[in-house]
Amino acid sequence: MNLRHVSRPGEGVDAIETPALVIDVDAMQRNLVAMAAFAAGHRLRLRPHAKMHKCAAIARLQVEAGAVGVCVQKTSEAEALAAAGTCDIYVSNEVVDRRKLARIAALAAHIRVAIAVDSAEGVDRLAEAMRAQPGAGIDVFVEIDVGQGRCGVAAAAAGALAHRVVSHAPPDGGLRFAGLQAYHGGAQHRRAAVEREAASLHAAALVRAAQASITASGIACPLVTGGGTGTFAFDAAHGVWGELQCGSYLFMDRDYADNAATPGAPRFEQALFVKSQVMSRGAAHVVVDAGHKAHAVDSGPPRVWRHDLDVKSVSDEHTVLQARPASGAASLPGIGDTVWLIPGHCDPTVNLHSSYVVVRGGLDAGRVEAIWPIEARGCLT
Ligand SMILES: Cc1ncc(COP(=O)(O)O)c(C=O)c1O
User: Fold this and answer.
1) Most distant CA pair in the chain, distance
2) What is the pLDDT of residue 1?
3) How far apart are CA 151 and CA 185, in angstroms?
4) Segment 122-178, tens digit of pLDDT
5) pTM of the predicted model as reported, rounded to 2 decimal places
6) pLDDT of res. 50
7) CA-to-CA distance for 196 and 233, rounded, in angstroms?
8) 248 lines ligand 1 (CB under 6 A)
9) Best of 52, 244, 253, 350 to mutate for ligand 1, by most ligand atoms within 8 A of CB?
10) What b-and-e string marks burial along 334-348, b requiring 16 or more CB atoms within 10 Å of the CB?
């Protein structure tokens, strides 16, 4: 792994070469503890989504703080984290490619693995892959569409699919029916809390309908898993979800910061930054050395931390910042100055970097505590 362009543990924050992906680890740990306390206080299991951080060191901290394991979305993410020591992984996504299913089954022979399904064909392919690993088992969640219109079967079809899973149960097959996957990605960034609350309420009604469909098939539904940073507090209140999968709460990003606060939910702090440096200065703008190869703009531009600067444009290696009209050009930073960017969207920003620079003591005067590899970076298969 190429760590040449990052700082070394012990160095001051000023020494971090730019652009760099930096964790304010004090803020991250407060977020970690706040979510763990919320889940424990509501008697919910916490299985944070590691597709966000893609890092085994962080997965370890989450499990040490009480998480039952982590979620990932991709087969190769699961493999990368398992190789780095993560031993309880839920692929909260459909995998239907036979070669990938063979890899999932091989993982399930060594660590605890779960997976989501939303088709009979997918269930049968998974069962076929598991037959090549006699004695191994895998937990299987039937995904229902709770309003996003992405993956998942209709609530009324959950019973039939659960039945299909159970038809491949031990001792003849390796599939253990584990319950329902119910995640509403489309609701997480609705700005008004009442809109997220309404989406969560609707999702809960669909979960109950799916549970009824499963029990009508004579099958018990052990667990409902789902929830994200935007809806978890509403989801928790319904009493149908037993496990939360939130990911972004740990780092936060500009898109989540733009959500109105959720009553009763912890306020998470910004913990992920891209450190950049002013490389050029015009009469009314500055240019920093981190473009969208260093911070993802799919959810909109980054925000500048503690500066009255707005993002004017972003290109591959440059972000152009201009002073707010009220502040004027005098507020522009100088050549060589540091500018901390709050990424628009944390997940794809992380995927652009090979490692985190972990800073203890704040961004003004802190020190580099560690460099954490992002083992699952680029794991898209
Ligand atoms: C299936 C699933 N669960 C949980 C999450 C976590 O959501 P968030 O990062 O918004 O907390 C995601 C994110 O996209 C997801 O796809």
Assistant:
1) 74
2) 46
3) 10
4) 999 999 999 999 999 999 999 999 999 999 999 999 999 999 999 999 998 999 999
5) 0.97
6) 98
7) 10
8) yes
9) 52
10) eeeebbbbbbbbbbb
Q: pLDDT (tens digit, 9 = 90+) per residue, 75-130?
A: 999 999 999 999 999 999 999 999 999 999 999 999 999 999 999 999 999 999 99
CB 247 within 8 A of CB 50: yes
With a 6 A CB cut-off, is 183 part of the ligand 1 pocket? yes
Atom of ligand 1 nearest to the CA of 52: 9
Sequence-ordered list of residues with C-beta below 8 angstroms from that of 85, at least 6 positions apart, any chain: 56, 60
- Of 100, 186, 111, nearest to 147 by C-alpha is 186
- pLDDT (mean) for 278-295: 97
Using a 10 angstrom Cβ sphere, with 0-12 exposed, 13-18 middle and 19 or more buried, the burial of residue 194 is exposed
Nearest ligand 1 atom to the CA of 249 is 11
Give residue for tokens 């991709």: 74
What is d(CA 174, CA 124) in angstroms, rounded to the nearest whole number? 11
